[in-house]
Structure formats: structure tokens, C-alpha cells
Write a structure and sequence with these properties.
alpha/beta; Alpha-D-Glucose-1,6-Bisphosphate, Chain A, domain 3; 4 domains; binds 2-acetamido-2-deoxy-1-O-phosphono-alpha-D-glucopyranose; 19 strands; five-stranded mixed beta sheet; binds magnesium ion; phosphoprotein
Length: 566
């Protein structure tokens, strides 16, 4: 009891140092709390408490990442990684919201005590907690890291370990690896990626090496954390000629400003630092915290238009490759042949281009949809032996179930002793290497990039050949600023508006006017806006559909002031 009294006074005293900014309202949202960096000290302090409680209750290490990803440099944010390296369980989000918005220290203390009782968490010592901290390169990150440490230290027994400046996926990877008892430092991360990449490159069929495509790749680092990390990783690799631009070095530009994966994917134009000299060259863009990856090529010397190869096409490339390896493994060659069943599942959101879904289905693949946000996609992908998920914006990965990996290891061992070097053996080795290369905790631009590169080499494909897998349907995304975005409630993986009443009928009526029209709206979970997405058979039609629906949204929900469309 004495310790509980100590815990209460420690929490009260620490919380009094981080008052809630007046008028602020925080929500855990699609990917943690986000706001202007200058507003977030109290939120990050409270996220520190949240992380400590999460570690206490699971008995494992958790992560706390300070980043606002692709958002402007003045913004920042914080999110928690669960012991498996994935996003914090959604069950805790209401508590996270309540904690972040508790008006006074006494209120905060009551919330912690009550929640700890409900969740059977022993506070006041006796149990230990460990939290790995990471942050991206934002200037507000250092002070916010200090706030996180103070939040963690406000829970007796909790220890913060500062892992320094990291990409978001590196932190998630470290949490996962540490809890699995595996090597979990940054050099270990680089070693795992470079080794498994080499393994895949060594398994590129000899006949493909003759007409090997260009090994040159130019990467836009969004002036964020990913460029520098790629430079480090590059030193440990051979077989690729990588050039990093918008690397975040002083003077090169501002984080996410006219560069990075979000800009390239949404605007479909050449990012800063790229131009006429890059026509036809394979280029890629990371976002500010390097958990998103898109590819593109510059189309002409005279315009800023690009051929975008987005998350949907990365997904298609990976799906084709994995499917091929599985079918090689299942080729009946001799009497010893044993079937190697594997359930392969593809997970997309409503933002996936309709042409990508058609393509994947036509390959005979099972495609399912979830709401926006990795927390939903990841969970769904875990239901398969191999689950591949990607958001159109380039966030995604491939998940392998433990059962599948142990079956694969067993088959690999058998093949290694009986038919080493056979096509079956190579396919097993490739799948094992992919499971090592691709981040199993969360989508990761660095590991995704290496897998794309290895698969392109395997296929002998240029970026143009890859892009031709299917043609994207023209699409348009708009943002509408409304008085209260929570007034929009959706269903069916966000494709139908349930509230406000009558809006869905209006969207349906607009959509029906267009050939191959598809349109949906949803409240953003990271920005204070409603997003409108439209697709149709021509760009003009997609633009028209998006604009007319945006106007209806504004009419139903907007301010009395003129439209604010972006
Ligand atoms: C249309 C879009 O790109 N939405 C993004 C964006 O979420 P919103 O809830 O749409 O703001 O940020 C999320 C976090 O990075 C990402 O998961 C998601 O895909
Ligand atoms: Mg990001």
C-alpha cells in the first residue's frame, strides 16, 4: 500500500508538469496522436504512461515512436508499438483518448487507477516494464522524447530505453525482435536486411542475369529519416547502384515539402530534386518516417508528370512473385512429391485502385478489404499463411504465419539433403529469404525497397514493364474541411456513409452518372478533414465526380463560409 501511495504522488507530481493545452482535444486516430509539435508535450507524456502500463500488463517490451510521418515538419505525433511489433491493440484506444484528454492531474490519476483495476495491472512497483523509444528527425522530437521519458518514469518499475533517431519500422522491428529473444539492435536490422537481400539476389536465375536490367535506382528520402538510413544500409550491400536525394542533410530541403511518398502519390508529379535528367530511370520515394514506399519514373523532359507505381502495384509485384514460388514448390516432379498447401491472402482498402483489385482477382487470388489504417490491414493479413497487405499510398508488408515458416523450414531441410539446388529447393529458399527481408512487424520502406529490387531482378523487369502489369483507372482524391468530421459515420470497410442520413444516396446518384464510377468519403483519422475518393474511366470524369461529391459533403457538413477544397 505504501508503494501505491508513492505511485499516486509520483503521478500527480509528474502530471502537474505537463498541463493539457486549453481547448485541445486529442484522438488516437488512424496512427496514434497527431498535432502541432508545440501542442504535444502533455500528450506524449501521457503516451509514456500508456506505454508503461501496456508493458506492465503484457510483461513484455513495448515501443513508443515520436513521428508525424508524412505530415508537415511543424507537426508531430506519438504511437505505441505492442509486444509483437504491431500497432497498439485497438481495445486500449478509448483509454488512450481519455488519458490524453484528462483535464487535471487528479483526473489523470483516477483514470490510471480505475483502468489498472479493470485490467488487473499492478501499479506501485513489484513488476517491471521496458519501453523502447524512437523518434524521427523533426525538430520538436527531442523535447517530446523527454516528455515521453518523464511519462514512463512516472510509473514505478518502468524503464525507458532511448534507441535514438529511427525510422518507424525500425522501432517496430526492434520491439518484435527483442520480445522474440532475437538480436534487436540497429546493426542487427541492417545485417538481416542486407543478408536476406543477398540471398535473394544469389537465387536470381542465371538466364535472367544475362539480360539483367539497369541496377541504378534514385531514391527520394522526403528529407526525413529514411534517406540517411538507406545510405548506411547501402554500405553493406552489393548489386545495386543507389543514389539518395532529399536525404535530409542540412540545406537539401524541408521534410515532406514537395517531396516524399505522400506528395508523389497524391499529386502524381515529380518531387523536388528530380527533373529532366531522370527521364526513364527507376525512382522511389519514402515518406518522412520511411514506412511508406512508392516508385515512379519521370515521363518527359518538358513536364513534371510521372508514371506512378504505387502501393497497389508493389502489392501486385509481390503477389505475382510469391504465387510463382508457391507454384514451383507445388510442381509434381517425382514420386517423392508432397503437396505444400499455403493460404495466400491479399488485403486492400477502398483506396486501392479498382484496376489493381481486378488484376489480383484475375490471377485467382483471394482479395479482402478492411478500413483504412495499418492496424486493420495487418490484423486481417495475420489470418493467412501468407498475407500481403498494402495501402495505395505505399504502406504495406508480407506476413508469414509461424506455422507456415516452420513447415517451410522442414521442407527446406528435406530438400537440402535430397535435392539441393533443385527448383523446389530454390523456391523454398527464396520464400524463407523474403520472410527475413520483409519487415514482419509493420510496412517498411527500406525492406520493401530491397524486396522490390530483388523481385525486379528475378523477373528481369524494368520499371516500365512492371508498371504495365495493369493500367490504373484515373482517380482523384480531395479534402473537405468541415465543422465536425466525426459527423460522418461509415460502414462496409468505409465504402458506405451511414450518417448523415441521405448523403450516401446523393453520392450514389452522382456516381451513377459516370462510366466505371466509384466514389466514397470518410473522415480522416490523421487530419481534421473529410476525404473524398473518386475513380472513373477518364481523368476528367474522376475529377468531376470527386468535385461534385465534395460539394455535397460541404453542403451537408461544411461551415457557412465558402468551400475550402484542396
Ligand atoms: C488516404 C490515405 O492515404 N490515408 C492515410 C492516412 O490516414 P487518414 O485516416 O486517411 O488520414 O494516414 C494513415 C497513417 O499514415 C495511413 O494509414 C492512411 O492510409
Ligand atoms: Mg509514415
Amino acid at each position: 500500500m505504501a508503494d501505491e501511495a508513492k505511485q499516486r504522488s509520483l503521478l500527480l507530481e509528474s502530471a502537474s508538469r505537463f498541463p493539457l493545452p486549453s481547448g485541445a482535444k486529442f484522438s488516437y486516430g488512424t496512427a496514434g496522436f497527431r498535432s502541432q509539435g508545440s501542442m504535444l508535450a502533455s500528450t506524449v507524456f501521457r503516451a509514456g504512461i500508456l506505454a508503461a502500463l501496456r508493458s506492465l500488463t503484457t510483461g513484455s517490451t513495448v515501443g513508443l515512436m515520436i513521428t508525424a510521418s508524412h505530415n508537415p515538419v511543424a507537426d508531430n505525433g506519438v504511437k505505441i508499438a505492442d509486444p509483437d511489433g504491431g500497432m497498439m491493440t485497438q481495445r486500449w484506444e478509448p483509454f488512450a483518448d481519455a488519458l490524453a484528454n484528462a483535464p487535471y492531474p487528479e483526473h489523470l490519476l483516477q483514470l490510471v487507477i480505475q483502468f489498472s483495476k479493470e485490467e488487473n495491472i499492478t501499479i506501485g512497483g513489484g513488476q517491471s516494464a521496458q519501453i523502447l523509444l524512437g523518434r524521427d528527425t523533426r525538430p520538436s522530437g527531442e523535447a517530446l522524447l523527454e516528455a515521453a521519458k518523464q511519462g514512463i518514469n512516472a510509473i514505478i518499475g518502468a524503464v525507458a530505453i532511448d534507441m535514438g533517431i529511427l525510422t518507424t519500422p525500425q522501432l517496430h522491428w526492434m520491439v518484435r525482435s527483442r520480445n522474440k529473444g532475437m538480436k534487436a539492435s540497429e546493426p542487427d536490422y541492417f545485417t538481416q536486411l542486407s543478408r536476406s537481400f543477398k540471398c535473394l539476389m544469389d537465387l536470381v536465375p542465371k538466364e535472367k542475369i544475362k539480360d539483367r536490367m539497369d541496377t541504378k535506382l534514385v531514391v527520394d528520402g522526403a528529407n526525413g529519416v529514411g534517406g540517411g538510413k538507406l545510405e548506411e544500409l547501402k554500405k553493406m550491400m552489393t548489386g545495386l547502384e543507389i543514389y539518395v536525394r532529399n536525404s535530409g542533410k542540412k540545406g537539401e530541403g524541408i521534410l515532406n515539402e514537395r517531396c516524399g511518398a505522400d506528395y508523389v502519390q497524391k499529386e502524381k508529379v515529380v518531387p523536388c530534386g528530380f527533373g529532366p535528367d531522370d527521364v526513364g530511370i527507376r525512382c522511389a520515394s519514402f515518406d518522412g518516417d520511411a514506412d511508406r514506399l512508392v516508385y515512379f519514373s519521370v515521363l518527359s523532359q518538358s513536364s513534371d508528370s510521372i508514371d506512378l507505381v504505387d502501393g497497389d502495384k508493389i502489392l501486385a509485384l509481390f503477389a505475382v512473385f510469391i504465387k510463382e514460388q508457391l507454384s514451383i514448390l507445388n510442381q509434381k516432379e517425382n514420386e517423392l512429391y508432397k503437396e505444400f498447401p499455403a493460404r495466400l491472402g491479399i488485403v486492400q482498402t477502398a483506396y486501392a485502385n479498382g484496376a489493381s483489385t481486378d488484376y489480383l482477382k484475375q490471377l485467382g487470388l483471394e482479395v479482402v478489404f478492411t478500413p483504412t489504417g495499418v492496424k486493420y490491414l495487418h490484423k486481417k493479413a495475420l489470418e493467412y499463411d501468407i498475407g500481403i497487405y498494402f495501402e495505395a499510398n505505399g504502406h504495406g508488408t508480407i506476413l508469414f504465419s509461424e506455422n507456415f515458416i516452420s513447415r517451410l523450414e522442414a521442407v527446406n531441410n528435406e530438400l537440402a539433403s535430397g535435392s539441393a539446388g533443385s527448383e523446389h529447393h530454390k523456391a523454398a529458399l527464396r520464400l524463407l529469404a523474403v520472410s527475413q527481408l520483409i519487415n514482419q512487424a509493420v510496412g517498411d520502406a527500406l525492406s520493401g525497397l530491397l524486396l522490390v529490387e530483388a523481385v525486379l531482378q528475378y523477373m528481369g523487369w524494368s520499371i516500365q514493364r512492371w508498371s504495365e502489369l495493369y493500367s490504373d483507372l484515373p482517380s482523384r482524391q480531395l479534402k473537405v474541411k468541415v465543422a465536425d468530421r466525426s459527423a460522418v459515420v461509415t460502414a462496409n470497410a468505409e465504402t458506405q456513409v451511414v450518417k448523415p442520413l441521405g448523403l450516401q444516396e446523393v453520392i450514389d446518384a452522382e456516381t451513377a452518372k459516370y462510366n466505371r464510377g466509384r466514389c466514397f468519403i470518410r473522415p480522416s483519422g490523421t487530419e481534421d478533414i473529410i476525404r473524398v475518393y473518386a475513380e472513373a474511366s477518364t481523368q476528367e470524369a474522376a475529377d468531376g465526380l470527386a468535385h461534385s461529391v465534395a460539394q455535397h459533403v460541404d453542403h451537408f457538413l461544411g461551415f457557412c463560409s465558402p468551400h475550402q477544397l484542396a
